[in-house]
Every structure is written in C-alpha cells, then in structure tokens.
Amino acid sequence: MAAMETAERLITADEYLAREFDDRFTELINGRVVVNQPLIPHQTIVGRIYLALGNWVNAGAGRGYVWLPLDTKIDEYNVLAPDIVWVAQAHLPPRGSKYMVHPPELVVEVRSPSTWNRDVGVKKNLYERHGVRELWLVDDRSSSVLRYRRSSEAAEAFDDGAEISAPDTLTSPQLPGFELDLGVLFAPAL
Fold first, then answer.
1. Residues 138, 90, 150, 178: is their CA dihedral positive or negative?
2. Fewest C-beta in 10 Å: which of 8, 25, 41, 89?
C-alpha cells in the first residue's frame, strides 16, 4: 500500500480569531495553531514584570495599559499572544475589541522550554516586521533580558539591542521613570 500524503490546510488570522473559545494557551504562527502551556517559573517571572509595569502605569495619568496574554493580530496568518503587552494611550484598541488590532509598543516574552526557539526566531522577526517598538526576551536560565528596540519612530527595524543581566536594571525610553531590578526579577520563587 502506498503512503498517502496530505497537505495541512493553513488557517487565516480571521478564522483563528472566530473560533470558539479554546481552554489551552495557543497562538497562530504562519497559519498553524501552536500550543503553549506555561510552567510555574515562567508564570512567576511574568507576574513580577506585570506587577512592575502595572504599578508604573497606575502611578500617573495617560500611561497606557498593560495586559497579560492577549491575542494580537499581526497579519493574515499570525495571531500572537505575548506574555505581556504595553500599549500607549494613543493606540488602545477600540472599545469592545476582542483582540489587539495595532501592534503594541512593548512586547515581553518569557522563556518557556517549548517556545524559546520561536520567541527568539519567528516571533521576534514578526514583531520587528510589524512595527513593535520594543521587545524584551526574558531568559530565566541566564538571568538576563535580550532587549531590542527601535532607536527612533523612523527606524524600520530593531536597531538597538542589548543583553541586560542581573543585578542590572532594565529601563525603557517609552516608560519614563520605569525601572525593573533584574536581581529582584530573577530571585528564586519556590
């Protein structure tokens, strides 16, 4: 009997976003649904960053919004769900939106064993190509953050990159006064 080949049908971002609620963590990458189930160390770091960004947002008016994983339609075949997004006041999604329709200004992805290769590869490239201004790739194994940003509004790509390690402090020109102590971020949790 001859082996039968079948072609996997890619789905569009609109098809993905129209599906019934799925209780698993998923994203759409290049037309394929990818499952991501975060573990305790990952969620601990996400919680610490979210709390720090939330405190900064709440400390003054007009500082935008910070959210935990939120479907972000990047293009026709990609819907990503960054671990954390920060959106400037000027780019808030329309009231009643179920997903992001404009790339966030800041995206944070925290290392997971099953997703790190995508985070530093295809997802970084998608964020860069579609206008994200700053990306933090947080690596708990090395207690460091790979920080990529555009040096100006006119920059077409991430042209300012750095690796920041504990015990240094992470800052952003988009977030005046925000400081994240990496020694505290990467302190043991459990």
1. negative
2. 8
Q: Characterize 109-147 residue by residue with b for buried, 16 or more Cβ atoms within 10 angstroms of its Cβ, and e for exposed.
A: bbbbeebeebbbeebbebbbeeebbbbbbbbbeebbbbb
Site of tokens 């075949």: 77
Q: Which tokens sit at 162?
A: 């750095």
Helix (H, G, I), strand (E, B) or coil at 159: coil
Write out the residue range of the structural domain in which residue 100 sits: 38-72+79-185
Are the C-beta atoms of residues 107 and 132 closer than 8 Å to each other?
yes
* Structure tokens belonging to residue 67: 């959210």
Structural domains of the chain, count: 1
pTM: 0.85
Amino acid 146 reads L
Confirm whether 16 is domain-assigned: no
